[in-house]
């Protein structure tokens, strides 16, 4: 993937290889509801923890100071992750 003249690769982390190829239940619903929550909370960068219950996906918590775990999981400094998303201008979570 090329963005702002930088090349980013997408690799599935080896330590999570047992998840490769698995389907995430309610994935599209989770993405949509998460984008709506982020839009209405309007904190900029945040993390949403979701759980899947018998009734479907639910919001567990919103973390306004997220970032440490994403650095560990992706093995990428938070600054680099934020550079990828800094120019996104989302006007409507439904689009």
Task: Tell me briefly what this model is.
With about 100 residues, this protein is α+β, with helices and mostly antiparallel strands.
How would you describe this protein?
The protein is α+β, with helices and mostly antiparallel strands and 95 residues long. It has a domain at 25-85. It has three helices and four strands, in the order E-E-H-E-E-H-H. The chain has helices spanning 27-41, 68-74, 78-85; strands at residues 2-3, 6-7, 47-53, 56-63. The strands form two sheets. The chain has a two-stranded antiparallel ribbon with strand order 1-2. The longest helix has 15 residues, at 27-41. It is globular. The mean pLDDT is 79.
How is the topology of this model organized?
Layout: E1 2-3, E2 6-7, H1 27-41, E3 47-53, E4 56-63, H2 68-74, H3 78-85
Antiparallel strand pairs: 1-2, 3-4
Number of strands: 4
C-alpha end-to-end distance = 22 Å
Largest sheet: 2 strands, antiparallel
Computed CA radius of gyration, to the nearest angstrom: 15 Å
Which outline best applies?
Answer: globular
What fraction of residues sit in β-strands?
Answer: 15-25%
Uncertain stretches: none
Mean pLDDT reading? 79
Features:
95 residues; single chain; two-stranded antiparallel sheet; globular; 4 strands; alpha+beta
């Amino acid at each position: 993937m090329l963005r702002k003249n930088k090349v980013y690769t997408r690799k599935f982390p080896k330590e999570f290889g047992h998840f490769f190829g698995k389907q995430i239940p309610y994935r599209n619903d989770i993405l949509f509801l998460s984008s709506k929550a982020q839009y209405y909370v309007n904190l900029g960068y945040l993390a949403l923890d979701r759980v899947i219950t018998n009734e479907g996906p639910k919001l567990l918590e919103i973390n306004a100071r997220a970032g440490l775990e994403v650095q560990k999981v992706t093995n990428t400094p938070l600054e680099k992750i934020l550079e990828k998303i800094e120019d996104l201008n989302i006007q409507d979570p439904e689009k």
